[in-house]
Amino acid sequence: MKISKLTPRGFCKGVTYAIHVINKAIENKDLKRPIYILGNIVHNKNIVQTFKSKGIITLEGPSRVSMLEKIKEGTVIFTAHGVSDEVRDLASKKGLDVIDATCKDVTRTHNLIKDKLNEGYKVLFYGKLNHPETEGVLGISREITLIEDNTNINILPVSSDKMIITNQTTMSYLDLIKKYEELKKVYPQLELMDEVCSATRKRQEAVINAITYDLIIVVGDKLSNNTRMLKEIASKKTNAIQVETIKDLKDYDLTSYKNIAITAGASTPMAILEEIVYNLENSTNNYISNINPDDFLKG
User: Fold this and answer.
1) Domains in the chain, ordered, with CATH?
2) How far is CA 249 from the centre of its chain?
3) pLDDT tens digits, one per residue of 128-146
């Protein structure tokens, strides 16, 4: 069995930044306690659990506003996925200390959308309903129209001489182009503002360009959209499976595969990836995890 590790691997810059921000918050004794996060800081439960063990409280709820309403005092951290101005205003009114871990790519998308709305554009946003990044974008304005894979583009309640489509940063750029081309037939004036982040795009390109493999293993959390996109792209090329940790490999018989490629989502700790590679290369078959929790915070 030959194992090949696709590049890039490890944390993207947004995940690295978010982890750095929280570690600094834990060290800062002047911050108001408790320290809360509005949802998962990134979509990897191992990272979330490690911060929980350090006293960070991750809130859950149907929306960021509903989560924020649970907090009476302390510090709130906005996740890498970004939040709407409504959430920022509410945190300020509640007198909370605020730490913003929003990925800079997401911030750029927010600013782009605001600029285009001010210029009189109708904005279409290609994303996943209930994903925190999409929630934050839709909170910018009620004039933004969400486009999903199953959206009937022939009956959209929007039309204008000036229209753009942009996207959740973790979407498949191939799917984005396909959706744009479909919409362009209905709205010839539509402009594309491609906001797929570089980390997501490079990982997708590596899978697209992977050849001769009879299996691609995608490592990452089930909640991670960029990991799901990698799995979908890989499945169109060859056999593909998605695992979160070494323990998930117990569900698969890999003995028939001779040439395996491994890739990972942008929020997958390097320790998880390397542990899987080590077990496969050495044919240990015990699949026991011995990772120190702090190693989950290392890209």
Assistant:
1) 2-11+199-297 (3.40.1010.20), 13-103 (3.40.50.11270), 105-196 (3.40.1010.20)
2) 23
3) 999 999 999 999 999 999 9
Nearest one of 99, 87, 103 to 170, comparing CA atoms: 103
Q: What is the dihedral of CA 202, 136, 103, 162, to 10 degrees?
A: 60
pTM of structure: 0.93
Q: Is the peptide bond before 132 cis (omega within 30 degrees of 0)?
A: no
DSSP 3-state of 16: helix
Greatest distance between any 2 Cα atoms in the chain: 62
Contacts 24+ apart (CB under 8 A), 248-256: 249/276, 249/279, 249/287, 250/287, 254/1, 254/215, 254/280
Say which of 27, 73, 133, 191 is annotated catalytic: 133
pLDDT at 285 over 70: no
Which DSSP symbol is given to 65? H
Residue reference for tokens 């090949």: 4
| Residues 12-56: tens digit of each pLDDT | 999 999 999 999 999 999 999 999 999 999 999 999 999 999 999
Please say if 274 is a catalytic residue.
no
Q: CA-CA distance, 185 to 265, in Å (whole number)?
A: 33
The contacts found for 128-131 with CB under 8 angstroms, 24 or more apart, are: 128/168, 128/171, 128/225, 131/81, 131/168, 131/225
